[in-house]
Amino acid sequence: MSKTILKIGITGGIGSGKSTVAKVFQILGIPTYSADDRAKWLMSNDPELRGQILESFGSESFLPSGELNRPFLAKTVFSNPEKVAKINSLVHPAVGRDFEIWSQHQTSPYVLKEAALIFETGGETKLDAVINVSAPLKIRVTRVLMRDKNRSEEQVNQIINQQLPDEIKNEKATFVIKNGPNKLIIPQVLAIHKKLISMDK
User: Fold this and answer.
1) Which residues are annotated as a binding site for ATP?
2) Which of the residues 105, 154, 173, 195 has an alpha carbon 20 to 30 A from that of 148?
3) How many domains, the chain?
4) Binding site: residue ranges?
């Protein structure tokens, strides 16, 4: 009987550097599922999810070409907490199903699910462990403003305020990687990788 693959979440607030840390795990040969990228793909391509979005947000949710109307949805959803909750209640289960199917086709000792929101959605209950990538707030804001030229500092702070504070995520996480000044991430990744390889399901 084949051994069950461990499912490990990797999360972190915007600008924490979770994608950079995930890339280090990928270099070590660990398959990584990007929940945010797959969510975008599923919203345009998964028939069940498309139907739910149409029903909840109307025909303007999709362009005549069939592509998701991102500007319309962003404008409709972003400033309305109820609509944010509604879109999340549709997208997160679809991503969860997609991740389970993807995981079944992997052969490594563990896989990573990279997602901005894990603890916020209760996603940790379906994972064997969670890594939180943590960084000081000022550094996170600076990183995002340098990376996303179209975002204002106010918008970045709005996103940060919708996510759980680092202190809470660090408490909930199985492992914490500190990605601040004078913190080397590779030794931290290698130490966690070694522990995960030796973990028994």
Assistant:
1) 15-20
2) 173
3) 2
4) 15-20
